[in-house]
Design brief:
Layout (H helix, E strand, L loop, with lengths): L2 H10 L2 H29 L4 H22 L10 H17 L5 H22 L7 H17 L8 H20 L6 H22 L8 H25 L5 H7 L2 H13 L6 H18 L4
């Protein structure tokens, strides 16, 4: 649309819709990352290293195009430490989803992100008491329940990799608090992550496999549900309080679980339901007084 038409469209749209629509699409995009990665590594020939590299390169390409259209230098934002954390998240995420269901992976990822950021706050001297402390104990207990040995427990290595992905994303989020303009920072970080992805591919030479379907899933995950998803989320964030933003993200594991059951025919076990209630409910208590 021409600039005037876009401006007129935005002014005519209900203000609440200008926040709600990008928020809903962003949450769907984040949950879709789990579904896309899982189905690609389960049902196609693409390997985890190739999926990671294509995802990051596709996201970088889309964000570079968007930044160029705005007259912003793609490498002007972000940093190498943030790019390293972005790469670590994406790599651990892909390798974990070789053996995790979409729901279990999203729950482990989200729990690890929030617990990493809480741990940083505690280390910096933040006090957690009352209901927030109760929530933290419940959330950690939920993770323990999910990971306890048993027939329904996720494979230990895959679970550890996803927890590592969540920790990396938590550090990335903490570093991003002072990174400046979010979209420029995200574009710069995706662009800087490409060399890391290239090194990963070099370590997998002779073992990498890519088919057209797996390639398509990786491109969609990188360009749309990652790159565009982050743009939509950052568009909505200024209108949301910190508490609202954190609470809204509680929907991501639930959406991934529903999508996994409906689209990938993945089971939802009693252990997963119990752990989900504990982890998400506990986190909801810990963030209720933020903002």
């Amino acid at each position: 649309l021409p600039t005037l038409a876009r401006s007129t469209f935005r002014k005519s749209m209900n203000p609440s819709l200008r926040v709600a629509l990008p928020t809903v699409f962003a949450m769907l995009a984040f949950a879709s990352n789990s579904l896309l990665c899982r189905v690609a590594l389960r049902d196609t020939e693409i390997d985890a290293a190739s999926f990671t590299a294509i995802r990051l390169a596709s996201g970088a390409l889309l964000l570079v195009i968007l930044l160029r259209a705005r007259g912003v230098q793609p490498a002007s934002g972000g940093s190498w430490p943030m790019a390293a954390m972005l790469f670590a998240y994406a790599a651990f995420f892909s390798f974990a989803y070789r053996d995790l269901t979409a729901a279990t992976g999203a729950l482990l990822l989200f729990g690890a992100v929030q617990l990493t950021m809480m741990a940083w706050g505690l280390w910096r001297g933040e006090r957690i008491a009352g209901l927030r402390l109760v929530g933290l104990v419940i959330a950690v207990g939920g993770l323990v329940v999910l990971l306890l040995p048993g027939l329904a427990a996720p494979p230990p290595l895959a679970a550890a990799l996803m927890l590592g992905a969540g920790a990396a994303w938590g550090v990335y989020s903490l570093l991003g608090r002072g990174a400046g303009e979010p979209i420029a920072a995200t574009g710069g970080n995706f662009l800087r992550s490409v060399p890391f992805a290239a090194l990963l591919i070099l370590t997998a030479v002779g073992h990498e496999t890519v088919d057209y379907t797996g390639l398509a899933y990786a491109v969609v995950s990188g360009a749309l549900t990652s790159g565009l998803g982050y743009v939509l989320w950052y568009a909505a964030l200024p209108a949301l309080s910190a508490t609202s933003a954190a609470t809204i993200q509680l929907s991501v594991p639930a959406i991934a679980a529903i999508g996994g059951a409906m689209l990938l025919a993945e089971p939802i076990t009693a252990r997963l339901l119990l752990a989900s209630a504990a982890i998400l409910g506990g986190i909801a208590l810990t963030i209720r007084k933020r903002g």
